[in-house]
Write a structure and sequence with these properties.
heterodimer, A: 252 residues, mainly alpha, MetI-like fold, B: 286 residues, 2 domains, two-stranded antiparallel ribbon
Protein backbone atom coordinates (compact mmCIF):
# COMPACT_ATOMS: atom_id res chain seq x y z
CA UNK A 1 0.00 0.00 0.00
CA UNK A 2 2.94 2.31 0.69
CA UNK A 3 3.84 2.26 -3.00
CA UNK A 4 0.33 2.55 -4.40
CA UNK A 5 -0.73 5.62 -2.41
CA UNK A 6 1.69 8.23 -3.83
CA UNK A 7 0.93 7.09 -7.38
CA UNK A 8 -2.77 7.29 -6.66
CA UNK A 9 -2.36 10.76 -5.14
CA UNK A 10 -0.65 12.03 -8.29
CA UNK A 11 -3.59 10.75 -10.32
CA UNK A 12 -6.12 12.33 -7.97
CA UNK A 13 -4.35 15.70 -8.00
CA UNK A 14 -4.17 15.59 -11.79
CA UNK A 15 -7.92 14.95 -11.87
CA UNK A 16 -8.50 17.94 -9.54
CA UNK A 17 -6.17 20.38 -11.26
CA UNK A 18 -5.55 19.38 -14.86
CA UNK A 19 -8.89 20.58 -16.29
CA UNK A 20 -8.32 24.14 -15.06
CA UNK A 21 -4.65 24.13 -16.06
CA UNK A 22 -5.55 22.97 -19.57
CA UNK A 23 -8.21 25.68 -19.72
CA UNK A 24 -5.60 28.24 -18.70
CA UNK A 25 -3.12 27.04 -21.32
CA UNK A 26 -5.73 27.28 -24.08
CA UNK A 27 -6.67 30.80 -23.02
CA UNK A 28 -3.32 31.82 -24.56
CA UNK A 29 -4.07 30.01 -27.81
CA UNK A 30 -4.04 32.15 -30.96
CA UNK A 31 -6.69 29.96 -32.59
CA UNK A 32 -10.42 30.05 -32.03
CA UNK A 33 -10.46 26.25 -32.11
CA UNK A 34 -9.10 23.73 -29.63
CA UNK A 35 -5.94 23.23 -31.68
CA UNK A 36 -2.78 24.93 -30.49
CA UNK A 37 -1.61 27.62 -32.94
CA UNK A 38 0.82 29.67 -30.93
CA UNK A 39 0.87 32.02 -27.96
CA UNK A 40 -1.37 35.05 -28.06
CA UNK A 41 -3.08 37.47 -25.70
CA UNK A 42 -5.85 38.18 -28.17
CA UNK A 43 -8.58 36.61 -25.99
CA UNK A 44 -7.48 38.58 -22.95
CA UNK A 45 -7.65 41.77 -24.99
CA UNK A 46 -11.11 40.77 -26.21
CA UNK A 47 -12.26 39.96 -22.67
CA UNK A 48 -11.05 43.25 -21.25
CA UNK A 49 -12.84 45.14 -24.04
CA UNK A 50 -16.16 43.34 -23.56
CA UNK A 51 -18.84 45.68 -22.17
CA UNK A 52 -20.97 42.92 -20.61
CA UNK A 53 -17.99 41.40 -18.87
CA UNK A 54 -16.79 44.75 -17.53
CA UNK A 55 -20.20 45.91 -16.31
CA UNK A 56 -20.98 42.59 -14.68
CA UNK A 57 -17.54 42.44 -13.02
CA UNK A 58 -18.24 45.86 -11.54
CA UNK A 59 -21.61 44.64 -10.23
CA UNK A 60 -20.01 41.51 -8.83
CA UNK A 61 -17.39 43.56 -7.02
CA UNK A 62 -19.94 45.96 -5.53
CA UNK A 63 -22.16 43.06 -4.45
CA UNK A 64 -19.26 40.97 -3.17
CA UNK A 65 -17.69 43.79 -1.14
CA UNK A 66 -20.94 45.02 0.42
CA UNK A 67 -22.26 41.54 1.18
CA UNK A 68 -18.91 40.51 2.65
CA UNK A 69 -18.70 43.59 4.87
CA UNK A 70 -22.23 43.12 6.22
CA UNK A 71 -22.01 39.33 6.63
CA UNK A 72 -18.61 39.54 8.33
CA UNK A 73 -19.80 42.02 10.96
CA UNK A 74 -23.09 40.23 11.66
CA UNK A 75 -21.52 36.76 11.53
CA UNK A 76 -18.64 37.66 13.84
CA UNK A 77 -20.93 39.24 16.44
CA UNK A 78 -23.24 36.23 16.27
CA UNK A 79 -20.37 33.76 16.65
CA UNK A 80 -19.15 35.64 19.72
CA UNK A 81 -22.62 35.70 21.25
CA UNK A 82 -23.10 31.99 20.53
CA UNK A 83 -19.73 31.25 22.11
CA UNK A 84 -20.80 33.10 25.26
CA UNK A 85 -24.02 31.14 25.44
CA UNK A 86 -25.31 28.72 22.84
CA UNK A 87 -28.65 29.19 21.16
CA UNK A 88 -30.10 26.06 19.64
CA UNK A 89 -32.32 27.81 17.16
CA UNK A 90 -29.74 30.30 15.86
CA UNK A 91 -27.08 27.63 15.50
CA UNK A 92 -29.65 25.23 14.03
CA UNK A 93 -30.83 27.83 11.51
CA UNK A 94 -27.27 28.50 10.39
CA UNK A 95 -26.67 24.79 10.09
CA UNK A 96 -29.85 24.51 8.05
CA UNK A 97 -28.83 27.39 5.79
CA UNK A 98 -25.55 25.59 5.04
CA UNK A 99 -27.38 22.33 4.33
CA UNK A 100 -30.06 23.86 2.08
CA UNK A 101 -29.46 23.22 -1.62
CA UNK A 102 -28.70 26.51 -3.37
CA UNK A 103 -31.66 26.19 -5.69
CA UNK A 104 -34.05 25.98 -2.71
CA UNK A 105 -32.47 29.06 -1.09
CA UNK A 106 -32.78 30.82 -4.43
CA UNK A 107 -36.45 30.13 -5.09
CA UNK A 108 -37.35 30.82 -1.44
CA UNK A 109 -35.70 34.24 -1.56
CA UNK A 110 -37.32 34.92 -4.94
CA UNK A 111 -40.71 34.06 -3.44
CA UNK A 112 -39.98 36.38 -0.48
CA UNK A 113 -38.94 39.29 -2.69
CA UNK A 114 -41.98 38.87 -4.93
CA UNK A 115 -44.22 38.69 -1.87
CA UNK A 116 -42.71 41.86 -0.40
CA UNK A 117 -42.91 43.52 -3.80
CA UNK A 118 -46.70 43.38 -3.67
CA UNK A 119 -46.71 45.67 -0.65
CA UNK A 120 -43.60 47.79 -1.03
CA UNK A 121 -43.08 48.00 -4.80
CA UNK A 122 -39.52 46.86 -4.26
CA UNK A 123 -38.20 45.52 -7.57
CA UNK A 124 -35.38 42.98 -7.92
CA UNK A 125 -32.00 44.65 -8.19
CA UNK A 126 -28.62 45.11 -6.56
CA UNK A 127 -30.10 45.33 -3.06
CA UNK A 128 -31.96 42.02 -3.34
CA UNK A 129 -28.80 40.33 -4.61
CA UNK A 130 -26.75 41.84 -1.76
CA UNK A 131 -29.33 40.70 0.83
CA UNK A 132 -29.31 37.18 -0.65
CA UNK A 133 -25.50 37.07 -0.56
CA UNK A 134 -25.40 38.28 3.05
CA UNK A 135 -27.89 35.53 3.86
CA UNK A 136 -25.84 32.67 2.46
CA UNK A 137 -22.42 33.98 3.58
CA UNK A 138 -23.51 34.51 7.19
CA UNK A 139 -23.17 30.86 8.21
CA UNK A 140 -19.74 30.55 6.56
CA UNK A 141 -18.45 33.54 8.53
CA UNK A 142 -19.93 32.26 11.79
CA UNK A 143 -18.41 28.79 11.31
CA UNK A 144 -14.90 30.14 10.63
CA UNK A 145 -14.97 32.62 13.54
CA UNK A 146 -16.50 29.99 15.83
CA UNK A 147 -13.63 27.60 15.07
CA UNK A 148 -11.14 30.22 16.23
CA UNK A 149 -13.17 31.01 19.37
CA UNK A 150 -12.91 27.35 20.41
CA UNK A 151 -9.19 27.87 20.92
CA UNK A 152 -9.66 31.12 22.86
CA UNK A 153 -9.06 30.99 26.60
CA UNK A 154 -11.96 32.72 28.41
CA UNK A 155 -9.57 33.47 31.29
CA UNK A 156 -8.04 36.22 29.15
CA UNK A 157 -11.36 38.03 29.03
CA UNK A 158 -11.94 37.45 32.73
CA UNK A 159 -8.55 38.98 33.44
CA UNK A 160 -9.55 42.06 31.46
CA UNK A 161 -12.82 42.29 33.40
CA UNK A 162 -10.96 41.92 36.72
CA UNK A 163 -8.68 44.73 35.66
CA UNK A 164 -11.70 46.96 35.24
CA UNK A 165 -12.65 46.60 31.58
CA UNK A 166 -16.33 46.64 30.64
CA UNK A 167 -17.81 43.62 28.84
CA UNK A 168 -17.66 45.47 25.55
CA UNK A 169 -14.16 46.75 26.33
CA UNK A 170 -12.92 43.21 26.97
CA UNK A 171 -14.46 42.09 23.67
CA UNK A 172 -12.97 44.99 21.72
CA UNK A 173 -9.50 45.06 23.30
CA UNK A 174 -8.87 41.38 24.06
CA UNK A 175 -11.11 39.00 22.09
CA UNK A 176 -11.39 40.93 18.84
CA UNK A 177 -7.62 41.20 18.26
CA UNK A 178 -7.33 37.47 18.92
CA UNK A 179 -10.07 36.79 16.36
CA UNK A 180 -8.68 39.18 13.73
CA UNK A 181 -6.97 36.55 11.52
CA UNK A 182 -10.09 34.34 11.55
CA UNK A 183 -12.31 37.33 10.78
CA UNK A 184 -10.10 38.27 7.83
CA UNK A 185 -10.15 34.66 6.61
CA UNK A 186 -13.93 34.52 7.03
CA UNK A 187 -14.31 37.74 5.05
CA UNK A 188 -12.16 36.40 2.22
CA UNK A 189 -14.13 33.18 2.10
CA UNK A 190 -17.45 35.06 2.17
CA UNK A 191 -16.13 37.16 -0.72
CA UNK A 192 -15.14 34.13 -2.79
CA UNK A 193 -18.53 32.50 -2.18
CA UNK A 194 -20.29 35.71 -3.16
CA UNK A 195 -18.23 36.44 -6.26
CA UNK A 196 -18.79 32.87 -7.52
CA UNK A 197 -22.49 32.38 -6.91
CA UNK A 198 -24.66 31.80 -9.93
CA UNK A 199 -27.67 29.74 -8.87
CA UNK A 200 -29.11 32.02 -6.17
CA UNK A 201 -28.02 35.25 -7.86
CA UNK A 202 -29.64 34.42 -11.19
CA UNK A 203 -32.98 33.99 -9.45
CA UNK A 204 -32.97 37.20 -7.40
CA UNK A 205 -31.14 39.55 -9.79
CA UNK A 206 -32.93 42.28 -11.73
CA UNK A 207 -32.05 43.62 -15.18
CA UNK A 208 -29.58 46.15 -13.75
CA UNK A 209 -27.76 43.65 -11.56
CA UNK A 210 -26.21 41.07 -13.91
CA UNK A 211 -23.20 39.57 -12.16
CA UNK A 212 -20.05 38.11 -13.69
CA UNK A 213 -21.10 34.47 -13.12
CA UNK A 214 -24.39 35.21 -14.89
CA UNK A 215 -22.54 36.50 -17.96
CA UNK A 216 -20.12 33.56 -17.82
CA UNK A 217 -23.01 31.13 -17.55
CA UNK A 218 -24.71 32.67 -20.58
CA UNK A 219 -21.44 32.45 -22.56
CA UNK A 220 -20.94 28.82 -21.50
CA UNK A 221 -24.51 27.97 -22.55
CA UNK A 222 -23.90 29.50 -25.98
CA UNK A 223 -20.85 27.27 -26.37
CA UNK A 224 -17.18 27.28 -25.54
CA UNK A 225 -15.35 30.46 -26.47
CA UNK A 226 -11.64 31.15 -26.02
CA UNK A 227 -12.57 34.50 -24.48
CA UNK A 228 -14.33 32.58 -21.75
CA UNK A 229 -11.13 30.59 -21.16
CA UNK A 230 -9.30 33.89 -20.64
CA UNK A 231 -11.94 35.21 -18.21
CA UNK A 232 -11.88 31.90 -16.33
CA UNK A 233 -8.12 32.01 -16.00
CA UNK A 234 -8.21 35.53 -14.56
CA UNK A 235 -10.93 34.59 -12.04
CA UNK A 236 -9.40 31.28 -11.00
CA UNK A 237 -5.98 32.92 -10.60
CA UNK A 238 -7.45 35.76 -8.54
CA UNK A 239 -9.56 33.51 -6.34
CA UNK A 240 -6.65 31.11 -5.90
CA UNK A 241 -4.45 33.89 -4.55
CA UNK A 242 -7.24 35.02 -2.19
CA UNK A 243 -7.68 31.48 -0.86
CA UNK A 244 -3.97 30.89 -0.33
CA UNK A 245 -3.83 34.22 1.48
CA UNK A 246 -6.82 33.37 3.66
CA UNK A 247 -5.41 29.95 4.56
CA UNK A 248 -2.21 31.64 5.67
CA UNK A 249 -4.31 33.85 7.92
CA UNK A 250 -6.16 30.92 9.44
CA UNK A 251 -3.08 28.91 10.29
CA UNK A 252 -0.27 31.36 11.04
CA UNK B 1 -20.03 43.16 45.70
CA UNK B 2 -23.19 41.17 44.95
CA UNK B 3 -24.61 44.31 43.38
CA UNK B 4 -21.54 44.64 41.18
CA UNK B 5 -21.72 41.04 39.99
CA UNK B 6 -25.36 41.44 39.17
CA UNK B 7 -24.58 44.49 37.06
CA UNK B 8 -21.79 42.65 35.30
CA UNK B 9 -24.01 39.72 34.29
CA UNK B 10 -26.76 42.08 33.25
CA UNK B 11 -24.44 43.91 30.90
CA UNK B 12 -23.14 40.60 29.55
CA UNK B 13 -26.67 39.44 28.79
CA UNK B 14 -27.41 42.76 27.08
CA UNK B 15 -24.20 42.61 25.08
CA UNK B 16 -25.06 39.11 23.96
CA UNK B 17 -28.57 40.15 22.92
CA UNK B 18 -27.14 43.12 21.08
CA UNK B 19 -24.60 40.95 19.25
CA UNK B 20 -26.99 38.18 18.29
CA UNK B 21 -29.93 40.36 17.21
CA UNK B 22 -28.70 41.29 13.71
CA UNK B 23 -28.08 37.62 12.90
CA UNK B 24 -31.44 36.63 14.38
CA UNK B 25 -33.26 39.29 12.34
CA UNK B 26 -31.36 38.27 9.21
CA UNK B 27 -32.19 34.60 9.71
CA UNK B 28 -35.86 35.41 10.28
CA UNK B 29 -36.02 37.56 7.15
CA UNK B 30 -33.95 35.35 4.84
CA UNK B 31 -34.59 31.85 6.15
CA UNK B 32 -37.69 31.58 8.32
CA UNK B 33 -39.91 33.94 6.31
CA UNK B 34 -38.97 32.60 2.84
CA UNK B 35 -39.32 28.99 4.01
CA UNK B 36 -42.76 29.73 5.45
CA UNK B 37 -43.82 31.43 2.22
CA UNK B 38 -42.62 28.43 0.22
CA UNK B 39 -44.53 26.00 2.44
CA UNK B 40 -47.72 28.08 2.10
CA UNK B 41 -47.24 28.43 -1.68
CA UNK B 42 -46.80 24.69 -2.00
CA UNK B 43 -50.33 24.28 -0.65
CA UNK B 44 -51.91 26.87 -2.98
CA UNK B 45 -53.06 26.65 -6.58
CA UNK B 46 -51.38 28.11 -9.61
CA UNK B 47 -52.71 31.54 -10.51
CA UNK B 48 -53.96 32.54 -13.94
CA UNK B 49 -50.92 34.80 -14.58
CA UNK B 50 -48.32 32.58 -12.98
CA UNK B 51 -48.79 33.70 -9.40
CA UNK B 52 -50.49 31.78 -6.61
CA UNK B 53 -54.20 31.59 -5.80
CA UNK B 54 -56.55 29.96 -3.39
CA UNK B 55 -57.99 27.34 -2.79
CA UNK B 56 -55.59 25.41 -0.60
CA UNK B 57 -54.82 21.99 -2.00
CA UNK B 58 -52.53 19.00 -1.67
CA UNK B 59 -52.57 18.54 -5.42
CA UNK B 60 -48.99 19.82 -5.87
CA UNK B 61 -47.68 17.07 -3.65
CA UNK B 62 -49.75 14.33 -5.25
CA UNK B 63 -48.46 15.52 -8.65
CA UNK B 64 -44.92 14.81 -7.44
CA UNK B 65 -45.87 11.14 -7.32
CA UNK B 66 -46.74 11.21 -11.02
CA UNK B 67 -44.43 8.77 -12.88
CA UNK B 68 -43.06 11.65 -14.98
CA UNK B 69 -41.73 13.41 -11.88
CA UNK B 70 -41.07 10.20 -9.98
CA UNK B 71 -38.56 9.42 -12.70
CA UNK B 72 -36.80 12.75 -12.12
CA UNK B 73 -36.65 12.09 -8.38
CA UNK B 74 -35.27 8.60 -8.87
CA UNK B 75 -32.71 9.83 -11.39
CA UNK B 76 -31.56 12.59 -9.00
CA UNK B 77 -31.33 10.03 -6.23
CA UNK B 78 -29.22 7.50 -8.09
CA UNK B 79 -26.95 10.12 -9.65
CA UNK B 80 -26.35 11.64 -6.20
CA UNK B 81 -25.74 8.17 -4.70
CA UNK B 82 -23.25 7.15 -7.38
CA UNK B 83 -21.45 10.51 -7.14
CA UNK B 84 -21.28 10.20 -3.33
CA UNK B 85 -19.97 6.63 -3.47
CA UNK B 86 -17.32 7.67 -6.00
CA UNK B 87 -16.31 10.69 -3.92
CA UNK B 88 -15.87 8.47 -0.85
CA UNK B 89 -13.99 5.77 -2.74
CA UNK B 90 -11.71 8.26 -4.50
CA UNK B 91 -11.42 10.59 -1.51
CA UNK B 92 -10.44 8.06 1.13
CA UNK B 93 -7.06 7.03 -0.34
CA UNK B 94 -6.25 10.67 -1.05
CA UNK B 95 -7.11 11.65 2.54
CA UNK B 96 -4.98 8.74 3.75
CA UNK B 97 -2.09 9.90 1.58
CA UNK B 98 -2.32 13.46 2.94
CA UNK B 99 -2.54 12.27 6.55
CA UNK B 100 0.64 10.23 6.04
CA UNK B 101 2.60 12.79 4.04
CA UNK B 102 4.49 14.15 7.03
CA UNK B 103 6.03 17.59 6.73
CA UNK B 104 4.38 18.47 3.42
CA UNK B 105 0.89 17.73 4.78
CA UNK B 106 -0.22 21.36 4.67
CA UNK B 107 0.87 21.73 1.08
CA UNK B 108 -1.04 18.63 -0.04
CA UNK B 109 -4.07 19.73 1.95
CA UNK B 110 -3.88 23.12 0.27
CA UNK B 111 -3.99 21.42 -3.13
CA UNK B 112 -7.36 19.95 -2.13
CA UNK B 113 -8.72 23.14 -0.57
CA UNK B 114 -7.80 25.28 -3.56
CA UNK B 115 -10.35 23.84 -6.01
CA UNK B 116 -12.85 23.69 -3.11
CA UNK B 117 -12.98 27.50 -3.12
CA UNK B 118 -12.35 28.07 -6.80
CA UNK B 119 -15.34 29.00 -8.91
CA UNK B 120 -17.68 26.02 -9.21
CA UNK B 121 -19.15 27.47 -12.39
CA UNK B 122 -15.77 27.73 -14.07
CA UNK B 123 -14.79 24.25 -12.89
CA UNK B 124 -17.94 22.92 -14.55
CA UNK B 125 -17.23 24.91 -17.69
CA UNK B 126 -13.73 23.38 -17.82
CA UNK B 127 -15.36 19.98 -18.38
CA UNK B 128 -17.52 21.39 -21.16
CA UNK B 129 -14.30 22.56 -22.75
CA UNK B 130 -12.81 19.06 -22.49
CA UNK B 131 -15.83 16.90 -23.31
CA UNK B 132 -17.69 18.75 -26.05
CA UNK B 133 -17.91 17.43 -29.60
CA UNK B 134 -15.35 20.05 -30.63
CA UNK B 135 -13.66 19.92 -27.23
CA UNK B 136 -10.08 19.06 -26.45
CA UNK B 137 -10.45 15.28 -26.06
CA UNK B 138 -12.50 14.78 -29.22
CA UNK B 139 -10.28 17.13 -31.25
CA UNK B 140 -7.15 15.36 -30.05
CA UNK B 141 -8.57 11.88 -30.78
CA UNK B 142 -9.69 12.98 -34.24
CA UNK B 143 -6.29 14.49 -35.03
CA UNK B 144 -4.64 11.27 -33.96
CA UNK B 145 -6.96 9.43 -36.30
CA UNK B 146 -8.39 7.28 -33.53
CA UNK B 147 -11.99 8.31 -34.14
CA UNK B 148 -13.89 9.61 -37.18
CA UNK B 149 -16.89 11.17 -35.49
CA UNK B 150 -16.71 12.91 -32.09
CA UNK B 151 -17.58 10.71 -29.11
CA UNK B 152 -20.76 11.94 -27.40
CA UNK B 153 -19.24 12.56 -23.98
CA UNK B 154 -21.30 15.55 -22.92
CA UNK B 155 -25.03 15.81 -22.14
CA UNK B 156 -25.57 12.46 -20.47
CA UNK B 157 -25.84 11.19 -16.87
CA UNK B 158 -22.19 10.09 -16.94
CA UNK B 159 -21.03 13.65 -17.60
CA UNK B 160 -23.19 14.89 -14.69
CA UNK B 161 -21.69 12.30 -12.33
CA UNK B 162 -18.20 13.23 -13.50
CA UNK B 163 -18.94 16.92 -12.91
CA UNK B 164 -20.34 16.21 -9.44
CA UNK B 165 -17.40 14.04 -8.41
CA UNK B 166 -15.01 16.67 -9.69
CA UNK B 167 -16.90 19.42 -7.90
CA UNK B 168 -17.45 17.67 -4.58
CA UNK B 169 -14.38 15.48 -4.14
CA UNK B 170 -12.78 18.12 -1.85
CA UNK B 171 -15.95 18.07 0.32
CA UNK B 172 -15.29 14.37 0.91
CA UNK B 173 -11.53 14.57 1.37
CA UNK B 174 -11.55 17.23 4.11
CA UNK B 175 -13.70 15.41 6.73
CA UNK B 176 -12.08 12.06 5.84
CA UNK B 177 -8.67 13.59 6.36
CA UNK B 178 -9.77 15.05 9.71
CA UNK B 179 -10.79 11.62 11.06
CA UNK B 180 -7.82 9.69 9.64
CA UNK B 181 -5.56 12.33 11.17
CA UNK B 182 -7.08 11.74 14.61
CA UNK B 183 -6.76 7.92 14.41
CA UNK B 184 -4.57 6.37 17.05
CA UNK B 185 -1.70 4.79 15.05
CA UNK B 186 -1.12 2.20 17.79
CA UNK B 187 -4.44 0.53 16.87
CA UNK B 188 -3.21 0.00 13.32
CA UNK B 189 0.12 -1.25 14.62
CA UNK B 190 -1.68 -3.65 16.93
CA UNK B 191 -3.63 -5.02 13.99
CA UNK B 192 -0.42 -5.51 12.01
CA UNK B 193 1.34 -7.07 15.02
CA UNK B 194 -1.49 -9.56 15.34
CA UNK B 195 -0.79 -10.67 11.80
CA UNK B 196 -3.31 -8.73 9.72
CA UNK B 197 -2.26 -7.82 6.20
CA UNK B 198 -2.40 -4.10 5.30
CA UNK B 199 -5.65 -4.55 3.34
CA UNK B 200 -7.26 -6.42 6.23
CA UNK B 201 -6.20 -3.65 8.62
CA UNK B 202 -7.71 -1.13 6.22
CA UNK B 203 -11.06 -2.92 5.93
CA UNK B 204 -11.45 -4.31 9.43
CA UNK B 205 -9.80 -1.64 11.59
CA UNK B 206 -9.28 1.63 9.81
CA UNK B 207 -12.54 2.05 7.90
CA UNK B 208 -14.75 1.08 10.88
CA UNK B 209 -12.83 3.54 13.06
CA UNK B 210 -13.32 6.26 10.45
CA UNK B 211 -17.09 5.72 10.30
CA UNK B 212 -17.96 9.18 11.72
CA UNK B 213 -15.78 10.91 9.13
CA UNK B 214 -17.18 8.76 6.35
CA UNK B 215 -20.73 9.62 7.43
CA UNK B 216 -19.88 13.34 7.54
CA UNK B 217 -18.26 13.16 4.12
CA UNK B 218 -21.21 11.26 2.67
CA UNK B 219 -23.67 13.89 3.92
CA UNK B 220 -21.54 16.83 2.81
CA UNK B 221 -21.42 15.38 -0.71
CA UNK B 222 -24.86 13.79 -1.00
CA UNK B 223 -27.02 16.76 0.00
CA UNK B 224 -25.59 19.27 -2.50
CA UNK B 225 -25.45 16.55 -5.19
CA UNK B 226 -29.11 15.77 -4.68
CA UNK B 227 -30.04 19.44 -5.01
CA UNK B 228 -27.62 20.22 -7.81
CA UNK B 229 -28.76 22.53 -10.52
CA UNK B 230 -25.73 23.93 -12.30
CA UNK B 231 -23.91 20.66 -13.05
CA UNK B 232 -26.93 18.93 -14.55
CA UNK B 233 -27.89 22.08 -16.41
CA UNK B 234 -24.50 22.55 -18.10
CA UNK B 235 -23.27 18.95 -18.44
CA UNK B 236 -26.54 16.99 -18.47
CA UNK B 237 -28.41 18.58 -21.32
CA UNK B 238 -32.15 18.37 -21.71
CA UNK B 239 -32.30 14.62 -21.12
CA UNK B 240 -30.72 14.58 -17.66
CA UNK B 241 -33.19 16.79 -15.77
CA UNK B 242 -32.80 16.55 -12.00
CA UNK B 243 -34.94 17.86 -9.11
CA UNK B 244 -32.90 21.07 -8.97
CA UNK B 245 -33.65 21.78 -12.63
CA UNK B 246 -37.31 20.89 -12.12
CA UNK B 247 -37.59 23.41 -9.25
CA UNK B 248 -35.76 26.12 -11.18
CA UNK B 249 -37.93 25.54 -14.21
CA UNK B 250 -41.19 25.83 -12.27
CA UNK B 251 -40.09 29.19 -10.86
CA UNK B 252 -38.90 30.58 -14.20
CA UNK B 253 -40.06 29.22 -17.58
CA UNK B 254 -43.09 27.16 -16.46
CA UNK B 255 -44.23 29.70 -13.90
CA UNK B 256 -45.90 27.05 -11.76
CA UNK B 257 -44.77 28.32 -8.36
CA UNK B 258 -46.96 26.10 -6.18
CA UNK B 259 -45.63 22.96 -7.86
CA UNK B 260 -42.01 24.22 -7.72
CA UNK B 261 -42.56 25.07 -4.04
CA UNK B 262 -43.87 21.56 -3.35
CA UNK B 263 -40.83 20.05 -5.06
CA UNK B 264 -38.43 22.18 -2.99
CA UNK B 265 -40.27 21.36 0.25
CA UNK B 266 -40.04 17.66 -0.62
CA UNK B 267 -36.33 18.01 -1.36
CA UNK B 268 -35.72 19.90 1.92
CA UNK B 269 -37.66 17.37 4.02
CA UNK B 270 -35.67 14.57 2.43
CA UNK B 271 -32.33 16.33 3.04
CA UNK B 272 -33.13 17.26 6.65
CA UNK B 273 -34.48 13.78 7.44
CA UNK B 274 -31.27 12.34 6.06
CA UNK B 275 -29.17 14.71 8.18
CA UNK B 276 -30.97 13.60 11.31
CA UNK B 277 -30.86 9.94 10.34
CA UNK B 278 -27.14 9.89 9.73
CA UNK B 279 -26.05 12.20 12.49
CA UNK B 280 -25.26 10.48 15.76
CA UNK B 281 -25.55 12.10 19.14
CA UNK B 282 -22.74 14.54 19.92
CA UNK B 283 -21.28 14.23 16.46
CA UNK B 284 -20.59 17.48 14.69
CA UNK B 285 -20.73 17.59 10.96
CA UNK B 286 -19.13 20.96 10.47
Amino acid sequence: MKRILPGYAIGAYLFLHAPLLILAVFSFNASKFTVWQGFSLVWYRAAFADRDLLDSSMNSLIIGLSATAIATVIGTLAAYALWKRGSAWIAGSMYLSLATPEIVTGVSLLALFQFVFRFLRLPLGMHTVILAHVAFSLAYVAVVVMARLRTFDPALEEAALDLGATEFGAFRRVTLPYLAPAIAAAALLAFTVSIDDYVITSLVAGIDSQTLPMVIYAMARRGVSPMLNAVSTVIVGGLGLLVIFSQRLRSP
Amino acid sequence: MVELERRATLSLARLRTLFISPAAVLLIVTLVAPSSIIVVYSLLSRGAYGGVERPFTFENYTRLLDPLYGEIFLRSLWIALVATALCLALGFPLALFIARSGARKNFFLMLVILPFWTSFLIRTYAWMFLLRDTGLINTALERLGLIRAPLPMLYNPGAVILGLVYGFLPFAVLPLYATIERLDPSLLEASADLGARPWTTLWRVMIPLCAPGIRAAAILVFVPCLGTYLTSDLLGGSKTILIGNLVQNQFTASRDWPFGAAASVAMMIFAVALLFAVRRRGEELL
